[in-house]
Amino acid sequence: MGWLDRIRHGPAEVADRQNEEHGPLPPVGRAAPGVAALFDGLHEDGSHSILDLGPAAESHLRIYSKYARQVRFADLITAPPQGEAWTAAIRDLPPHPHRPYDVVLAWNLLDRIWPEERRSLIERLAELTAPGARLYAVMDASGAPTSQLHRFTLLDVDRLQEEAVGPAERAHPPLLPAQVEKLMEPFEVTRAFTLRTGMREYMAVKRSDEGEP
Fold it and tell me: Is there a contact between 165 and 149 (Cβ–Cβ < 8 Å)?
């Protein structure tokens, strides 16, 4: 797994301790190497199609408009449905009206849903995307027993603002890199970055029919 890069400027436990002692931290702007890897090599000619599984945001649309004429926001992250409602939400993810998506931003949705629901999400994204499509995801790798909903706001193609919002909830066990690789198939992880916040960013590329990325 040579794709795993570590970017640490201090232990994640410091942030956890500050959160316990002083309440939620304010929004933090930070480098987003996984986002940079996602956009690296895309054409700024509107030829791409983007599916964002988060809520609509003006700053996101401004950035996406350089690359895509068609952008869809699914808003599954704020309050992910469960059970039959989740199955329906995944089934109803809108296909691109003209051709498959080639860029998907899943943010931390894989952290927000139950482990047994993760595979159905990846399978549906595989149905909606073209060979060579790029998938971005960010996951909590800190191992903390609780987690909060995070709001991610793109500031540029290589920076974002990260903000913890809402009450703390019991966290699902963190996915190890090898587990992420297996979960993502037929998307192949090509880059991953462990950040000082305890988050880990992934960029994956969908294999072609011949099995090549």
Answer: yes
